[in-house]
């Protein structure tokens, strides 16, 4: 059996989260979908959008090159699947049964199991070719399989599902990993350290600190919470109510029900709630976001020009990779910030990618990719990370893909 994790035509709905990363690499509930697939003990192929092909070859070399063996059964898995333990168990059942069929979520393909002698194209199968391939393979005529495989439809779904699945995912980590319980419900990996006078509350779920993670003194940890390898919580940090923190991050202030991807810094005082931060972000001192309307009503978001009802009372901000905020930046409820943008003052509207956003002062200007390439190099050097040609090319590609976003100046105030 071979597993193919594929991006489909709906992946751009998850922008800016998926503008610079494959959808299978989104962190949610302390796991990426790829982490779960790698535990299924099958060869895995990744099919991504063309601008991410080099990134996949460099960062995920074990995912093949899109050439498939038609002599084996193939389980096609959407890269937008929610990375939960329940989904993992469902995929295991599908592999064990080997019953051909299709699983859909809200009318969109979540998984397809095709038996041997699949007519696979002789050339490389790409994300753009997936609809044509599924049509030729007769996916619409396959029997529907009685499984539940939820898909992430919009960026705020990442926040929603992180809250829902974090506890079960952490329980799985504890059952399979090597941790020491240093306090009731608090588990640490090798060389992880809790600072003095740390207060913990694990009545709603465990707290896990991976290897070499550390907290300063006087921190508050309220589970479920996951703190990744080499993450550092600054003194007096408060982490609570379903927080997933990636590796090599620095976190201070108050963080609630949020996901922070690797290499991002929120080092200073300020509130972050019900939000998603991509990688290589830096939030300046005093940066805060709102995650609740003054009316206490459900939050609607403006997503790619369409009003979307989230069905959630708490929705913070979605911030794309490489974006930065100046000191005392304030981000209104439910706002989306693109990749590679700089924020100043009050963020009252969505922010496109590659802009200096100082709308409070009447200025929204474009940032050329050359500025971000130089910034990336400085950031990488600080963390002893090599800047590769594929990283530079990705910045150019993201700039071109987000070109239509940069029409913000003169828009009316949007609450």
Largest β sheet strand count, sense and barrel closure: 9 strands, mixed
CATH topology annotation of the largest domain = UDP N-Acetylglucosamine Acyltransferase, domain 1
**Helix fraction?**
10-25%
Which strand-content bin applies to the residues? 25-35%
Mean pLDDT: 93
Uncertain segments of ≥5 residues (pLDDT<50)? Answer: none
Which shape, going by the Cα principal axes? globular
Please list the strands of the largest sheet in the order they lie side by side. Answer: 6-7-9-12-15-18-21-26-29
Give the helix/strand class: alpha/beta
Task: Please work out how many helical segments DSSP would assign.
Answer: 7
Molecular structure report:
This protein has 415 residues and is an alpha/beta fold. The protein has two domains: 140 residues, Spore Coat Polysaccharide Biosynthesis Protein SpsA, Chain A (Alpha-Beta Complex); 251 residues, UDP N-Acetylglucosamine Acyltransferase, domain 1 (3 Solenoid), CATH 2.160.10.10. It is built from seven helices and 33 strands. The strands form seven sheets. A nine-stranded mixed sheet has the order 6-7-9-12-15-18-21-26-29, covered by helices on one side. Strands 2-1-3-5-4 form a five-stranded mixed sheet, with no helix packed on it. A five-stranded parallel sheet has the order 8-11-14-17-20, with no helix packed on it. Strand 4 and strand 5 form a beta hairpin. The longest helix is centred in the middle third of the chain and has 22 residues. It is globular, with a radius of gyration of 21 Å. The N and C termini lie far apart (50 Å). The model has no long low-confidence stretch (mean pLDDT 93).
């Amino acid at each position: 059996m071979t597993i193919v994790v594929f991006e489909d035509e709906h992946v751009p709905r998850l922008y800016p989260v998926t503008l610079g990363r494959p959808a299978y690499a989104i962190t949610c509930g302390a796991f990426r979908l790829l982490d779960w697939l790698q535990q299924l003990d099958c060869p895995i192929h990744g099919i991504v959008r063309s601008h991410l092909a080099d990134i996949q070859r460099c960062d995920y070399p074990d995912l093949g090159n899109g050439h498939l063996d038609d002599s084996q059964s193939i389980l096609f898995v959407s890269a937008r699947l929610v990375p939960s333990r329940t989904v993992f168990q469902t995929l295991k059942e599908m592999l064990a049964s080997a019953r051909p069929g299709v699983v859909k979520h809200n009318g969109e393909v979540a998984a397809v199991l095709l038996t041997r002698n699949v007519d696979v194209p002789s050339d490389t199968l790409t994300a753009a070719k997936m609809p044509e391939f599924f049509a030729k393979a007769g996916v619409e005529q396959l029997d529907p399989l009685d499984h539940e495989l939820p898909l992430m439809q919009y960026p705020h779904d990442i926040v929603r599902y992180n809250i829902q699945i974090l506890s079960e995912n952490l329980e799985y980590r504890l059952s399979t990993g090597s941790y020491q319980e240093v306090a009731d419900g608090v588990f640490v990996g090798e060389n992880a350290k809790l600072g003095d006078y740390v207060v913990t509350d694990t009545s709603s779920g465990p707290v896990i600190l991976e290897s070499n993670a550390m907290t300063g003194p006087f921190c508050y940890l309220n589970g479920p919470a996951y703190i990744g390898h080499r993450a550092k919580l600054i003194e007096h940090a408060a982490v609570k109510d379903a927080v997933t923190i990636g590796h090599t991050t620095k976190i201070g202030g108050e963080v609630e029900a949020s996901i922070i991807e690797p290499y991002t810094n929120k080092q200073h005082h300020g509130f972050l709630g019900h939000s998603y931060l991509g990688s290589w972000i830096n939030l300046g001192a005093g940066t805060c976001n709102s995650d609740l309307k003054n009316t206490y009503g459900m939050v609607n978001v403006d997503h790619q020009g369409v009003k979307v009802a989230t069905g959630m009372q708490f929705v913070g901000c979605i911030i794309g990779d490489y974006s930065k905020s100046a000191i005392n930046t304030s981000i209104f409820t439910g706002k989306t910030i693109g990749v590679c943008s700089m924020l100043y003052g009050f963020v009252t509207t969505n922010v496109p990618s590659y802009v200096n956003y100082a709308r409070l002062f009447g200025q929204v200007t474009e940032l050329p990719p050359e500025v971000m390439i130089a910034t990336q190099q400085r950031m990488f050097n600080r963390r002893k990370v090599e800047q590769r040609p594929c990283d530079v090319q990705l910045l150019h590609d993201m700039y071109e893909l987000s070109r239509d976003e940069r029409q913000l100046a003169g828009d009316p105030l949007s609450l």
